[in-house]
UniProtKB/TrEMBL annotation:
Membrane topology type: Multi-pass membrane protein
Transmembrane segments: 12-32, 100-120, 132-157, 177-196, 234-260, 280-299
Presence of the UniProt keyword Transmembrane in the record: yes
Similarity section: Belongs to the binding-protein-dependent transport system permease family.
Protein name (Swiss-Prot/TrEMBL): ABC transporter permease
Main localization (coarse): membrane
Stored InterPro entries: BPD_transp_1_N, MetI-like, MetI-like_sf
Recorded coiled-coil stretches: none
Pfam families: BPD_transp_1, BPD_transp_1_N
Amino acid sequence: MSVLRFALRRLAEMVATLLGASFVIFGAMYLAPGNPASFLLAGRSASPAALRAINAQYHLDAPFAVRYVRWLGRLLHGDFGRSITYRTDVSRLLADRLPATLLLVAMALVLVLVVGLTLGRIGAVRGGVVDATILVTTALAVGTPSFVAAVLLQGLFALRLHWFPAGGTGEGLGQMLWHLTLPAVALALYLIGMLARVGRSAMLDVLGQEHVTVALSRGVPRHKVISRHVFRNALGTVLTTVGLIVSTLLVCTVLVESAFGVGGIGQLLELSITTKDFPTVQAISLIMVGLFMAVNLVVDLLHPLVDPRVAHAPGRSAG
């Protein structure tokens, strides 16, 4: 199957999956206890006429199927509805907050890939005390939840040493990068340990294969064998974990953004769930699902380039 046909098939699968996800996300919000009208009233009593007016304004009085079809139709036109909490268009809220979250996730992903792969490579190649030290360090990183790392980093580097801001996002790209450094480290720490261990294991497996032993016995420099054969072949295994890494980053960003006061969609999602802001929760949830699926598609397309032994065969789908 050609790459183009494979990509088109995967895109069709993405559309079908997003449609199913949209139904689940929309339905789950209305199965939750409470309702948006009670939040809008803020505990005040209201006449039946006032309740009817509120329900009509936010289309809460229509049957479930009608609400879903209307919501889906607006999504196709880029309309995510109106926020119940902020009384403004959800698309405007997302436009204001999404850049901070995307930059935070991108910074954390770069840290995970660079530091994790480097530690995994050093541990597999050097062995001995160096490998043991890396194993202990990565074990500690894996055992540290993101919110715990956020508290520790904030207390040490922001409040005690004053090297970084304790929260916020700042103005302009330069200040955003500075403000998001600690949140990115907190978000990436657990995944750095996980990827380092996965990369180390994959490289050790390749180091024990026959073609590597033969290349070394023929006098090929060890660093060339490591770079051209061992590391590249191990990347195929590492690449399959990228989807899991991105999904974990998207989930954990809610906790990290709240800890550091980052005005991203993670913090917005937490506030919206608390206040029963259904349109905002639905929009953010669907965006996260879409981002995760897009990353999986990119991974599937890149996999044959990293590992030529992998081909786009019929029936193969994203891992």
